[in-house]
């Protein structure tokens, strides 16, 4: 059973009722196709606390399997790989990460942790760099970001797992897509370029990640009680 909500002439959001799921939860998982990108929104809270993980997982797999988009981007609140909390969101990680890899998801945009990280290999930054040097295909790029004033401190994996990380820093991102390239940039709220990565798609569909040679500032980290700009840090420990 499907419904479509027309937003002007440009955007169609398609919503499928998930088998066995409460009406209020069903409408919070949906996708939209826009200019060659399929954006899929998942309700991680329903998946972890409202007994809706199995139905969302089936719907996710079907929605990705049916996608003819050149790029697939997932949006969810709780991160697969956390930059603040001691443990990853294991239930979502076990259910959804294998599908992201199998179905060729390009990016997973997440929040919840009130810090910034970009992860291209769950085994860590060094593993990702080694795989790229060998020409390995790129799996999903996992991004966690924060725009508001509330901050959490980084966990003990944050300096070795992400390719790029920041604490106590409000951020925003831009994503530009074309036929053979997805261009991702992250900026501080003052407009300083902080992170940059491109996913390049070959003619055979293989995707690789490239980090452009753009000048980036040092990592924004807290030192003791001081934040990255020298003022008292505001991040709380999770």
Describe this entry's structure for a reader:
- This is Metallophosphoesterase.
- It comes from Brevundimonas diminuta (Pseudomonas diminuta).
- Residues 219-238 are annotated as: Disordered.
- With 238 residues, the protein is an alpha+beta fold.
- It has a single domain, classed as Metallo-dependent phosphatases (Purple Acid Phosphatase, chain A, domain 2, 4-Layer Sandwich).
- It is built from 5 helices and 13 strands.
- The strands form 2 sheets. Strands 1-2-3-4-5-6-8-7-9 form a 9-stranded mixed sheet, covered by helices on one side.
- The longest helix is centred in the first third of the chain and has 13 residues, at 53-65.
- Mean pLDDT is 85; it is low at 1-10.
Structure in a nutshell:
The protein has 238 residues and is of the alpha+beta class. It is 19% helix and 30% strand.
Write the layout of secondary structure elements.
Layout (H helix, E strand, L loop, with lengths): L1 E6 L3 E6 L6 H4 L3 E5 L2 E5 L2 H6 L3 H13 L5 E5 L14 H13 L4 E4 L5 E4 L5 H9 L7 E4 L19 E3 L4 E8 L2 E8 L4 E9 L5 E4 L28
Parallel strand pairs: 4-5, 5-6, 6-8
Antiparallel strand pairs: 1-2, 2-3, 3-4, 7-8, 7-9, 10-11, 11-12, 12-13
Helix pairs in contact: 3-4
Pfam family, one: Metallophos
GO molecular function, one term: hydrolase activity
Keywords: Hydrolase, Signal
């Amino acid at each position: 059973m499907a419904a479509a909500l027309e937003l002007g002439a440009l955007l169609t959001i398609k919503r499928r009722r998930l088998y066995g799921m409460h009406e209020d939860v069903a409408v919070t998982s949906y996708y939209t196709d826009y200019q060659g990108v399929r954006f899929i929104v998942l309700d991680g809270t329903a998946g972890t606390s409202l007994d809706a993980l199995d139905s969302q997982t089936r719907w996710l797999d079907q929605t990705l399997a049916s996608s003819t988009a050149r790029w697939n981007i997932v949006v969810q609140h709780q991160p697969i790989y956390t930059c603040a909390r001691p443990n990853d969101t294991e239930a979502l990680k076990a259910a959804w990460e294998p599908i992201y890899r199998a179905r060729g998801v390009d990016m997973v945009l997440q929040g919840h942790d009130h810090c910034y990280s970009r992860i291209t290999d769950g085994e860590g930054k060094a593993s990702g760099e080694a795989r790229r040097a060998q020409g390995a295909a790129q799996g999903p790029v996992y991004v966690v970001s924060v725009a508001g004033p509330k901050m959490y401190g980084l966990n003990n994996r944050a300096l070795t797992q992400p390719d790029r990380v920041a604490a106590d820093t409000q951020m925003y991102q831009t994503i530009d897509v074309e036929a053979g390239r997805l261009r991702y940039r992250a900026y501080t709220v003052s407009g300083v370029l902080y992170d940059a990565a491109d996913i390049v798609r070959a003619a055979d569909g293989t995707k690789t990640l490239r980090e452009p040679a753009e000048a980036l500032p040092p990592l924004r980290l807290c030192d003791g009680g001081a934040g990255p700009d020298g003022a008292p840090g505001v991040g709380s420990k999770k």
